[in-house]
Amino acid sequence: MSLNALKQKKPEKYRAILEAAIRVFARKGFYNARVSEIAREAGVADGTIYLYFQNKDDILISLFEEGMKTVIETVREAVSRTNDPLEKLRCFARAHLALIENDKDMAEVIQVELRQSTKFMKEYKNDKFFEYLDIIGEIVREGQAKGMIRADVEPGVVKRALFGALDEMSRFWVLSSKRKYSINTAAEQISEFFIRGIAA
Amino acid sequence: MSLNALKQKKPEKYRAILEAAIRVFARKGFYNARVSEIAREAGVADGTIYLYFQNKDDILISLFEEGMKTVIETVREAVSRTNDPLEKLRCFARAHLALIENDKDMAEVIQVELRQSTKFMKEYKNDKFFEYLDIIGEIVREGQAKGMIRADVEPGVVKRALFGALDEMSRFWVLSSKRKYSINTAAEQISEFFIRGIAA
Amino acid sequence: MSLNALKQKKPEKYRAILEAAIRVFARKGFYNARVSEIAREAGVADGTIYLYFQNKDDILISLFEEGMKTVIETVREAVSRTNDPLEKLRCFARAHLALIENDKDMAEVIQVELRQSTKFMKEYKNDKFFEYLDIIGEIVREGQAKGMIRADVEPGVVKRALFGALDEMSRFWVLSSKRKYSINTAAEQISEFFIRGIAA
Amino acid sequence: MSLNALKQKKPEKYRAILEAAIRVFARKGFYNARVSEIAREAGVADGTIYLYFQNKDDILISLFEEGMKTVIETVREAVSRTNDPLEKLRCFARAHLALIENDKDMAEVIQVELRQSTKFMKEYKNDKFFEYLDIIGEIVREGQAKGMIRADVEPGVVKRALFGALDEMSRFWVLSSKRKYSINTAAEQISEFFIRGIAA
DNA sequence: TATGAATGAGAATTCATTCAT
DNA sequence: CATGAATGAATTCTCATTCAT
Questions:
Q1: Which residue from A154, A164, A174 is facing B185, i.e. has the nearest CB?
Q2: Which of A119, A150, C20, D94 could pair covalently with C41 via S-S, beta carbons 3.0-4.6 A apart?
């Protein structure tokens, strides 16, 4: 895509816009965010946005894809530290929630996008998200191959259930101000439920 | 709310608008839905919408509250059929996913709203949703009292994790056309994971 | 006009609407007044208004014509108490300002209408107002015939100037809360200026 | 006001919109004027209006303030040509009516605004108008100090009465097509009435 | 490249008026 | 006569996007 070439030209500006967009989308939501507000927050002119992105939707998509790339890398790395599939699930949960904690705005934006079912989930083939989900799927299949996870467990259900559990927990985290327990507690508990739940 | 009084006057029209709104919101998403399209679909004039609802937001809120009322009633009823707390969780999962299957449009709209973090989750105190979540919380506390669920399990984590797991599963259901396994399989598997995961 | 017949049928309702309209127009101005607010204030249904008036404009016109009829009668009566044309001018000023003082809402509405140049002054032939203005014109011509008012004085200028002076004074009266001098002082001063100004 | 800064950027466009607004408001009245008509008449897009003005009300307010600034300057200048307070009143009257004659549209709009008692006179502190009125007040006080105007004359009454007289005369001028006497005759007669009326 | 003034399509909402009851 | 729910035309204002500079 021609615009991708531009990303290479002034990467600082591209990043500035993307980071401004994260903040504005997190604050206002995609539909209530104004392109001019993103421009102001990025310190560029309104028109400049369109030198780096095709339109407002494209900002969100790019945001999401860039974000997911980092998330996938980080989580893959965390998971690769152990060979025990059950332990890998724990690592996944910890890494996922740690990412949320480190970048709440990004977390919120990704959640909004993932959930804005209509516009984005319907029109846009969300490969990155499926790739992410399937990290869990792979772990489950590996565990089943090693006989550590019950054979009747559906990897496709586990991946969605675990992701959903972590995601709902993180939404609570992002939106709530008062928190009864730490995000670590949540990570430990949720991975514990799933490990016990699916272990052979 | 003063407008609620009107619901009593011509309940058919109130319901017609609400049901049209469910379909339109499910099809287009809240922000891309046009009030005039809801009116057309409901068979009323644009202005009539405003005799029953304060504004477009109010349609969504009303939709959500009415929907949650039904969901809470149905799930409460399903759960009350057994005394075994672990079994209750299974009933919860089945009932939740059955509701999704029976009214996909409503399911999608509720999910959109729940996730539109910004506008709705931030500004609108979402009591109905917390009430729903806490059905699970109560079951867990009951199970702990009976010694059937481990005491170190956090009810607040379980309720969000289980809800998140079911919800993510149902999003997949709603959005995807091709389905590898039935919604019943998903309900059984997810409740099985959690039951094993938290049982004493 | 067919509607005029209706005025005869339930004169209380006709008057109730008119009086409600005076209050609402005075409070909000014609364009910001809502027909439904007039209806509520009159204690009738929205639709009932249209049994007594053709439309919103017609309420204002009727209001004005009824009001001017009273004003003309009252002022004519006051003026007829003396034979001295100069003294008549003083009576006119006193009566005009007294009317304002007695019915501020009506005064304000009449002023609004008189001044809403465009819609009403252009489209609607304002006979009543000219009749009122010409009470002054007649007095001036009578005074000139009796040699008490200078012959070079233009009655058409005097009538507009005196009316304008009184009207501006009354606007001040209606809109201002703190008043340095009484409305009587104003009446005396203004008539004094004009009497000296035009006397032979 | 922040928008005033914009006036400096493209003053031609600001003026074009203002002048279009004068014509449209004069033709249709404020409430019947359409923003899109002003835009068309100014040769700009609808949205452009909102780069220079906050909303429709703001156009009228700006119009009024700009207009009054000119009026005040012109009249002040005219009045300063003589030292005789009574003669100053004549200059005031001539200058006022000459302004009306030169810019009938503006005159009509200012009158509409001044008289739209409700919306504008009540909510908007009309300093410019009071400043204008008080030019007359100052002249009267000066005349009293010099012993040329009777001491019992209330400057506050004279200023409103003279302004009202001129204003009513000019409304007649603006609205009427057939005119029995020239605007100069009116100016001379009215100033003559007041000069005789208040002279010592 | 970068700007930001200008554009104009588009949408929510209002409210005078009607008419079935 | 009276009602008030329903209508739908009409209008302001917003904001993503463009393009001349």
A1: A154
A2: C20
Query: Which CATH number covers residue B109?
Result: 1.10.357.10
- The minimum CA-CA distance between A35 and chain B, rounded to whole Å, is 16
Rounded-to-integer distance, Cα D167 and Cα D146, Å: 28
pLDDT for C176 beyond 90: no
Residues of chain D with pLDDT under 70: 1-9, 113-123, 177-178
Q: What is the predicted pLDDT for the residue at D107?
A: 87
Give strand letter and number of the nucleotide nearest B50 (CA to C1').
E13
Please indicate, yes or no, whether residues B66 and B17 belong to a single structural domain of this protein.
no
CA–CA distances in Å: residue C55 to residues B111, C34, C45, C61, D34: 48, 12, 14, 10, 22
Q: How far apart are CA A18 and CA A55, in angstroms?
A: 13
Q: What is the pLDDT of residue C5?
A: 47
Angle between helices C155-175 and C104-115 (to 10 degrees): 130
* C64-100 confidence digits (pLDDT tens): 999 999 999 999 999 999 999 999 999 999 999 999 9
By CB atoms closer than 10 A (0-12, 13-18, 19+), residue B193 is buried
Q: How many domains does chain C have?
A: 2
Query: In whole angstroms, what is the distance from residue A142 CA to residue A136 CA?
Result: 10
Query: How many whole angstroms separate alpha carbon C6 and alpha carbon C14?
Result: 9
Burial of B128 (0-12, 13-18, 19+ CB in 10 A): middle
Protein-covered nucleotides of chain F (CB closer than 7 Å) are 1-20
Token output for A78: 């965390």
The answer to whether D184 contacts chain C (CB < 8 Å) is no
Q: Which of D154, D163, D186 sits opposite C168 (nearest CB)?
A: D163
* Structural domain boundaries enclosing C10: 1-54
Distances (CA, A) of C28 to B26, C23, C54, D56, D120: 42, 9, 21, 18, 11
The count of CB pairs under 8 A between chains C and D is 152
CATH code, domain with B12 = 1.10.10.60
Are the beta carbons of D198 and D156 closer than 8 angstroms?
no
What is the CA B31 to C1' E19 distance in angstroms?
35
pTM: 0.90
Q: Which of A173-177, B141-145, C48-52 has the lowest mean pLDDT?
A: A173-177
Rounded Cα gap, residues D71 and D74, in angstroms: 5
- pLDDT reading at C15 higher than 70: yes
Helix, strand or coil for residue C84? coil
Query: For an interface test with B, which of A23, A89, A160, A172 has the most B Cβ atoms less than 10 Å from its Cβ?
Result: A160
- Please give the average per-residue pLDDT across B155-166, as a whole number: 96
- Strand F proximal residues, C:48-107, Cβ < 7 Å: 48, 50-51
Q: Are C6 and C38 contained in the same domain?
A: yes
Are B152 and B79 part of one and the same domain? Answer: yes
In angstroms, rounded to a whole number, what is the distance separating the alpha carbons of residues A79 and A82? 6
Boundary-marking domain end, from A54, A76, A99: A54
**If you search the block for the tokens 């619901």, which residue do you land on?**
B7
**Do residue C50 and residue C82 come from a single domain?**
no
One domain for residues B108 and B38: no
Q: Using the 3D structure, point to which of B9, B24, B54 is the last residue of a domain.
A: B54
Same domain for B66 and B31? no
Do A20 and A96 lie in one domain? The reply is: no
